[in-house]
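for the recovery benchmark. tokens below, seq after
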């Protein structure tokens, strides 16, 4: 097998992660956004279920995803990031195959749970794989690829399902579902070319393998100073955490350790919860339904407008590549939240009237809301949790965050028809208020991870702990290292033992005299 190095290896990691999250986006869209449930043949196969049962067959997938996160909590750390992705995609293929061959409601429910378990498992492993392998100086930009492909998945599924909607056979729904096996298959074919993360290897005592993987990622010699320096930084944290012993399940939910596990767990869950409680899936799942039933568009026009919305949603998912590392995670989320809140308030106001002008304005601001969401909350939500968790419990903490994400998704999908039926357009006032609350929560409690290695993030919580971490200016600076700055920093750590000081002390000294800027 060819051993990729440097940019080629990073590209392979992004391809595997992208295919996995493209699949995640397609699967979420296939049921509602794309229009599968609008097909009479599909509903007939399900036995013409009631609205409640129809909603259940859509939302039960999220329960499967939550169960996948639980499986990752229990087993993910033992088997590693790479193997977790492989197992997850095999499970997804099994679930997709059963759905494609489905002939009953019960079979569809079971198959969607199976597929959800695979997706839930992979959505824990993939962000950790990327966070632990991508370079700190532009990690945020690279992570945008992952979130961008989620939305490309939503858009392509929407158009594909719309294109198949008028087929006169079960091809109307079997073909879009079967296509998902293609993406999992491609992901599995690419997995042999990626590496396990050096932090997981170091934590499990495979230090020589960790050194070699670092050398491959940096495209340096195994004994190069940059490789030795990065390994020294990782090993300092590994050794510190090893003194605490193997973490218990309960330890994940306490601040009794120096690493402040509970605080960081809640902090990492924040963007996941923002992702769901922003109201984004009110539109991702029900946009065509809202356009048809509340804005009086025809069925065909509603489906076309929804597909156009998801297409421009995908286009606007890429600009964060250029600014997320420059302005930082905190300001990216706060500006995005402000835009989302304003759009939700306008939508709610427009839905108070039934005029054509108000319907057009509401539609335009639904489009704009999706743009605001994908320009900030979305890309941060799938990176921040892994960046802020200590290595010792990273897999478990990430699993808890992903579990909260999928459980919240299930609740939002189930309550949206009820909320719209009871309070109509006033339902959007609720989401506007929630989006607005994200701003002070991020400002007071969030730390900045842009430009920092995962070990530097660890030291913020170890050296200067407080509840409102965002009020300490040292925790909110945006560190702007170049690739060369980062390599010089690692090279300086190569001989920290000989200098008889810790990596932490060396890093503080380098920060004083460094040319790297911060904002």
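predicted aa per position
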């Amino acid at each position: 097998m060819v051993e990729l190095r440097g940019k080629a290896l990073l590209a392979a990691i992004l391809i595997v992660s992208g295919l996995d999250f493209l699949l995640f986006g397609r699967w979420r869209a296939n049921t509602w956004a794309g229009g599968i449930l609008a097909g009479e043949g599909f509903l007939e196969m399900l036995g013409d279920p009631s609205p409640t049962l129809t909603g259940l067959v859509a939302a039960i997938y999220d329960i499967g995803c939550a169960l996948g996160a639980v499986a990752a909590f229990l087993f993910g750390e033992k088997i590693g990031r790479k193997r977790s992705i492989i197992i997850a995609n095999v499970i997804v293929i099994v679930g997709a195959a059963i759905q494609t061959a489905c002939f009953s409601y019960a079979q569809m429910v079971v198959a969607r749970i199976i597929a959800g378990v695979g997706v839930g498992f992979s959505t824990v492993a993939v962000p950790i794989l990327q966070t632990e392998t991508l370079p700190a100086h532009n990690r945020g930009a690279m992570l945008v690829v992952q979130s961008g492909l989620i939305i490309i998945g939503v858009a392509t599924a929407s158009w594909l399902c719309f294109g198949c909607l008028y087929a006169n056979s079960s091809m109307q729904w079997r073909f879009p579902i079967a296509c998902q096996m293609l993406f999992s298959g491609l992901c599995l074919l690419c997995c042999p070319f990626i590496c396990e993360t050096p932090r997981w290897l170091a934590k499990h005592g495979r230090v020589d393998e960790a050194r070699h993987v670092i050398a491959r990622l940096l495209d340096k010699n195994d004994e190069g100073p940059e490789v030795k320096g990065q390994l020294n930084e990782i090993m300092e944290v590994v050794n510190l955490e090893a003194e605490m012993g193997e973490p218990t399940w309960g330890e994940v939910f306490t601040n009794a350790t120096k690493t402040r596990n509970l605080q960081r767990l809640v902090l990492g869950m924040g963007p996941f919860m923002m992702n769901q409680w922003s109201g984004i899936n009110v539109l991702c799942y029900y946009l065509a339904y809202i356009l048809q039933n509340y804005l009086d568009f025809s069925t065909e026009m509603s489906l076309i407008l929804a597909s156009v919305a998801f297409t421009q949603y995908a286009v606007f998912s890429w600009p964060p590549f250029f600014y997320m590392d420059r302005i930082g995670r905190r300001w990216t989320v706060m500006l995005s939240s402000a835009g989302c809140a304003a759009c939700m308030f306008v939508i709610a106001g427009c839905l108070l009237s039934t005029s054509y002008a108000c319907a057009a304005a509401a539609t335009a601001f639904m489009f704009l809301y999706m743009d605001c969401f994908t320009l900030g909350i979305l890309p941060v939500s799938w990176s921040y949790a892994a960046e802020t968790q200590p290595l010792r419990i990273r897999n478990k903490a990430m699993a808890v965050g992903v579990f909260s994400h999928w459980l919240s998704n299930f609740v939002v999908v189930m309550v949206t028809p009820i909320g719209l039926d009871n309070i109509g357009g006033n339902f959007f006032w609720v989401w506007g208020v929630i989006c607005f609350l994200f701003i002070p929560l991020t400002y007071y409690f969030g730390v900045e991870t842009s430009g920092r290695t995962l070990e530097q993030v660890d030291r913020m919580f170890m050296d200067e702990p407080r509840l409102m971490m965002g009020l300490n200016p040292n925790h909110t600076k945006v560190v702007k290292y170049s690739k060369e700055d980062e390599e010089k920093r690692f090279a300086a750590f190569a001989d920290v033992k000989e200098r008889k000081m810790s990596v932490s002390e060396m890093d503080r000294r380098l920060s004083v005299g460094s040319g790297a800027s911060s904002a």
